[in-house]
Amino acid sequence: MVCDKKRFWIVALALLAAVSCGRKATDTDVLAEQFSQPPMAYRPYVWWHWMGSNFSKEGSRPGGPGAADDL
Q1: What is the pLDDT of residue 22?
Q2: What distance separates the 2 farthest-apart alpha carbons in the chain?
Q3: Dihedral of the CA atoms 38, 39, 40, 41 (nearest 10)?
Q4: DSSP state of 60
Q5: Contact predicate 58/64, CB 8 Å
């Protein structure tokens, strides 16, 4: 009984290793392309909340006052 369980797990792991090693190189290329140029629906976005009148046009632009210059 114990020998059968052990044999089952050895065969299962061997099959898993054989299946996972069978990936094509093109799968990786497609994944890399999709990662570097994701569809617009999956790209990050920003949601701004302006608190009252505590903002200015100059301060809301990139590189304005308070922006880190070394990023």
Answers
A1: 62
A2: 76
A3: -110
A4: T
A5: yes
